[in-house]
C-alpha cells in the first residue's frame, strides 16, 4: 500500500507566529533607523528565506545594510527565545491533525523559510520529533518558491510527486508545490489571504483543520487505490 506524504509549512500553518514575526521586523527596522513597516507588508514576505524577505521589505538597502537588517532581525528572535515566557502557540487543531495523520499511516515532513535553529526549536515541541520524518529549510539550499525543499523531502521520505502534497498558508508555498509537481493545498488562517493563495494556484484552501482533514482523507484514498 502506498503511503502518502504531507509536507507542512510551519509559520502561519501549524504555528501562530504572526505577532513575533511582526515584532521582529518592527524592532529590526527601528535598529537601522528605517520606517516601521505596516503589518500588511510584513505578512507578504513570510515564508521566503530571511535575506530575500527583508530585501523585498526594504528593496533600496545596499548589501551591507541588508546584512545588518538580517542580523538585527535574528537578534530580536534570539532575545525573544531567551525569555522563558516566550511562546508561539500552535493553531487549534494542528497537533490533533498531525497526530491523526501519523496514526493513519501518512509520512510527514516540514518545509519552512525558518532557519535551521528555528526548525530545531519547533522540533523540540512535545511529540514533534517523533511525528516528522524529515525537515527542510531555506538554509539547506534554495528557499521558497524554488522546489528544492520539496524534492529533498520526497527523497528523504521515499515519495514521488503523485503521492505528495504541500500544505501552507502563503502563495510562496503554493508556487513551490506547483514547481515541484505536487498537490498545492492552502490554509486560510495564516499570512496570505485565500485569494492570494488561489491566484498562485492552490487546489483548495481550507478554512479549518477539520476541512483540511476531509481533503487529506480524499487524497489518501486516491493514493492508496492507485
Textual characterization of the structure:
The protein has 226 residues and is of the alpha/beta class. It contains eleven helices and six strands. It folds into two domains: 5-16 and 89-225, HAD superfamily/HAD-like (Rossmann fold, 3-Layer(aba) Sandwich), CATH 3.40.50; 18-82, DNA polymerase, domain 1 (Orthogonal Bundle). Strands 3-2-1-4-5-6 form a six-stranded parallel β-sheet, with helices on both faces. The radius of gyration is 17 Å and the shape is globular. The model has no long low-confidence stretch (mean pLDDT 95).
Identify the notable features of this structure and list them briefly.
DNA polymerase, domain 1; alpha/beta; Rossmann fold; six-stranded parallel β-sheet; 12% strand; 2 domains; 226 residues
Across the major sheet, the strand order is 3-2-1-4-5-6
Number of helices: 11
Radius of gyration: 17 Å
* Total discrete domains: 2
CATH class of the largest domain: Alpha Beta
H and E string: EHHHHHEHHEHEHEHEH
Low-confidence stretches: none
Tell me the overall shape.
Answer: globular
First CA to last CA: what distance?
9 Å
Q: What's the CATH H-level superfamily name of the largest domain?
A: HAD superfamily/HAD-like
CATH architecture call of the largest domain: 3-Layer(aba) Sandwich
Main β-sheet, in a few words?
Answer: 6 strands, parallel
User: Structural class from helices and strands?
Assistant: alpha/beta
**How much helicity do the residues have?**
40-55%
Approximate strand percentage: 5-15%
Mean pLDDT: 95
In the CATH scheme, what's the topology name of the largest domain? Rossmann fold
In total, how many beta strands?
A: 6
Amino acid at each position: 500500500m502506498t503511503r502518502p506524504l504531507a509536507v507542512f509549512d510551519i509559520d502561519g500553518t501549524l504555528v501562530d507566529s504572526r505577532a513575533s514575526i511582526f515584532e521582529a521586523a518592527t524592532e529590526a527596522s527601528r535598529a537601522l533607523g528605517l520606517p516601521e513597516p505596516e503589518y500588511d507588508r510584513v505578512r507578504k514576505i513570510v515564508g521566503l528565506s530571511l535575506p530575500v524577505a527583508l530585501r523585498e521589505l526594504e528593496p533600496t538597502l545596499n548589501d551591507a545594510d541588508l546584512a545588518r537588517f538580517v542580523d538585527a532581525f535574528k537578534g530580536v528572535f534570539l532575545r525573544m527565545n531567551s525569555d522563558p515566557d516566550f511562546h508561539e502557540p500552535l493553531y487549534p487543531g494542528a497537533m490533533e491533525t498531525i497526530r491523526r495523520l501519523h496514526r493513519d499511516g501518512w509520512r510527514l515532513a516540514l518545509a519552512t523559510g525558518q532557519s535551521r535553529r528555528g526548525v530545531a526549536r519547533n522540533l523540540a515541541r512535545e511529540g514533534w520529533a517523533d511525528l516528522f520524518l524529515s525537515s527542510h529549510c531555506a538554509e539547506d539550499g534554495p528557499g521558497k518558491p524554488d522546489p528544492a525543499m520539496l524534492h529533498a523531502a520526497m527523497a528523504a521520505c521515499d515519495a514521488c510527486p503523485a503521492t505528495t502534497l504541500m500544505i501552507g498558508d502563503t502563495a510562496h508555498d503554493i508556487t513551490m508545490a506547483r514547481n515541484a509537481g505536487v498537490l498545492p493545498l492552502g490554509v486560510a488562517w495564516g499570512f496570505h489571504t485565500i485569494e492570494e493563495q488561489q491566484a498562485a494556484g492552490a487546489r483548495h484552501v481550507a478554512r479549518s483543520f477539520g476541512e483540511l482533514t476531509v481533503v487529506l482523507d480524499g487524497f489518501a484514498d486516491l493514493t492508496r487505490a492507485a
